[in-house]
Amino acid sequence: MWYLSLVKDLFQFISKKRKIQYIFLFLFSIISSIAETMSIGAVFPLIALISSPETMMDIFLVEYLVKYYDLNYNELVIFIAISFGVLALLAGLIRIFVNYFSLKINYLTCYDLFMNIYSNILFQPYEYHVSHNTSEIISIITQKVYAIVTILTNVVNMLIYLITLFLILFILFFIDIKTTVFAMGFFLFFYFFIAIALKRKVIKNSDILKEDQRLSVKAVQEGLGAIRDVIVDKTHQFYLNIYKISISKVLNATAQSLFIAQAPRFLLESLGLVFLSIIIVITTNNDDVKFLTLLPILATLAVAAQKILPMINSIYQSHTMNVYNSKMLEEVIEILNLKNDQDKIGDKKKQIEFKKNIEIKNLNFRYNSSHNDQLNSINLKINIGDRIGLMGGSGAGKSTFLDLLMGLLHPTSGEISVDGENVKSNLISWQKNVSHVPQFIYLSDNTLAENIAFGVEKNQIDMKKVKLAAFQAQISDFIDSKPKKYDELVGERGIRLSGGQRQRIGIARALYKNTKLIIFDEATSALDLNNETKIMDTIYNLDKKITIVIATHRSSTLTKCNKIYKFENNGIIKLSEKNLIK
Questions:
Q1: Region of 407 on the Ramachandran plot (φ > 0 left; ψ -120 to 50 alpha; else beta)
Q2: Which end of the chain, C or N, has fewer beta carbons within 10 A?
Q3: pLDDT tens digits, residue range 115-153?
Q4: How far is CA 262 from CA 99, 144, 443, 450, 553, in A?
Q5: Residue range(s) of every CATH 1.20.1560.10 domain in the chain
Q6: Which CATH superfamily is domain 357-581 in?
Q7: Angle at which helices 291-337 and 16-41 pack, to 10 degrees?
Q8: Integer distance in angstroms from the first to the last C-alpha of the chain?
Q9: Overall fold of domain 3-341
């Protein structure tokens, strides 16, 4: 059971509180197992008293009750019958409690781990998100995390069943050791053989689940994400086929693994009855043994088998499903093991406030996967209130430079300092000074107010700031014309808004943040000339205390910038207005 090493790795991410709860669960499981065992053990003296009263003094419990409490035959039968009923009821109630407690702890633990996984992914550096497909991440967060639920629940149940099984066998060894050893040996060999024989098939299904579950999410995400193109180009069937292939593999692998996990139970139950029949036939044909003498043993074995067989099958079934989910658990543990940016925020005492200038000195950058510098020897000074224009063709390094300026990426060498303070000393403090307006504004399926105050709890939104930002972004008239005004829903990804309106919401969002530096990364490149002109007029008319950096491939949008730079050959050169016109 190699997946147990994965569970061991998983436990290092479980809180101390949950670990203590698991210790209590273990203790309660022992109590439950003892009660279950005692209820089975009470069957033997009860049946012995009824079937062979003459041999009742051979039973230690009966001898003890007669000797010390002077009970007659009828009183003995009543006492042991009531004791059996009480123990059976008590065992059932304790089992219900243990089952509830087990599920409660497992799901609380999974809740903790789910939050850790999502938090760990969110706090990964920007380069991680750039290098990973979102469908892969969504698959892990929304689906593969449930491998934790399955495996933790199964492992806890296996432990409970093993404790109970051990104690029941301990009692049966005293009643009939030969029959118990023979029967258990047969059943264990049966399951062990099946587990070994089908192990490769289950592991193969685990690989299918890991890969094709991601592909099914990818197919849905891409099909719905490009729904306009899908409808216009009539490519519905293309995405349906991708989804059909991947989801059919997942469901087929799941069905096969469930069959492998469940099928042996039906055969084993039949074999158990056959085994019991053989014992009865052998004993009844043995002249040296009276059937009534063996009846208590057979009755106890029958009751024990009713408990043991489902337990053995549940242990096997849990083992099979754990193997099936193990590959997904590996992925989840990889995510939990990732180091995140929470511990790299620098010295919190060094607050960075942009009051004078930003200096970029000898900045070089290359991606981890690249052998060549994307940017080389960049030197640049930005004063407070500057309107900086950045030009260059696609792939020239404009967006990479802006990512470095915002602290999303870290220089390979060189530094970015604000008023003489390296931004690495406190990235979080620096990023509070920066707002970003990208080419494609992400809008959530919420109200206009919530999209302007993006990431702020609804009951904490400052509506005065929202309205001021909307006014400055010249979108307030449009909002006021709507029936619900700022409570108007924008639709998924802002589908109910035009391109120009989405960009103005993006500008209002940046203004709501009330930062000293606003970065526009190809923010108007997807707009027509008329809308672009209006948006640029809005940008240039912003408060002169706000520093603006605009990256674009259109020189016409930079005519009102006081400094213009061009990216080429992995470097940067300053352009005069005359150079720009040419």
A1: left
A2: C
A3: 888 888 888 888 778 777 777 787 777 777 777 888 888
A4: 21, 22, 47, 50, 63
A5: 3-341
A6: P-loop containing nucleotide triphosphate hydrolases (3.40.50.300)
A7: 170
A8: 72
A9: ABC transporter transmembrane region fold (1.20.1560)
